[in-house]
């Protein structure tokens, strides 16, 4: 008899525990970051700042150019339900390569800006099919003497990207503007990459945008 009474008492407690678990699960937001090595650098800071309520995942490895993006989106998106997808392509589109496929500013550009814009349009269309919110992050600065890249190209590619995003109704996080301040003191000379402190500073506007989008 006592066992039956204990079981009856435990059922409401069990149900309450399950309801709490479901409520916690429903509140958790899933965010996918798609991008190159720059996003790989700031993502750990974003993850740490937003956990546990917002789960942030970066696509496996380096997202590369928009060409690789178009080929890989289905795999990166997978079967997970995403609440928000934050993406960037640019540094690998505007890089120049010679006949030996080595970075060289006198070589051929990987993806011309017109094709870059068209590719972005296709990428946005695919991301919108997930029903997730979508945000685009502008390409960060290219310093003087950067291998295979020209200083002026990020501004050109970002202008084209912003035009696409405006047309498609996609919010833009202008990381280029932030990087103009961050890069000089927080990077390797002649390199597009950053120190840990630099990546942490780049993460700040990404964190803020994700928090706002996931409210």
Structure, explained:
The protein is of the alpha/beta class and 215 residues long. 51% of the residues lie in helices and 13% in strands. The protein has a five-stranded parallel sheet, sandwiched between helices. Strands 4-5 form a two-stranded antiparallel sheet. Helix 3 (66-77) packs parallel to helix 4 (113-128) and helix 4 (113-128) packs parallel to helix 5 (153-168). The longest helix is centred in the first third of the chain and has 26 residues, at 2-27.
Which key terms come to mind for this protein?
five-stranded parallel beta sheet; 13% strand; 7 strands; 215 residues; alpha/beta; globular; 51% helix; disordered N terminus
Low-confidence stretches: 1-25
Number of DSSP strand runs: 7
Order of strands in the sheet with most strands: 2-1-3-6-7
Distance between the termini: 49 Å
Please give the oligomerization state of what you see.
Answer: single chain
Instruction: Please estimate the helix content.
Output: 40-55%
Q: If helices are DSSP runs of H or I spanning 4 or more residues, what is the number of helices?
A: 7
Largest sheet: 5 strands, parallel
Rg (CA only): 21 Å
Strand content: 5-15%
* Average pLDDT metric: 90
List the helices and strands and how they pair.
Layout lengths: L1 H26 L1 E6 L2 H14 L3 E5 L7 H12 L6 E4 L8 E2 L10 E2 L3 H16 L4 E5 L15 H16 L2 E3 L1 H8 L13 H18 L2
Parallel strand pairs: 1-2, 1-3, 3-6, 6-7
Antiparallel strand pairs: 4-5
Quick gist of this model?
This protein has 215 residues and is an alpha/beta fold. 51% of the residues lie in helices and 13% in strands. The longest helix is centred in the first third of the chain and has 26 residues, at 2-27.
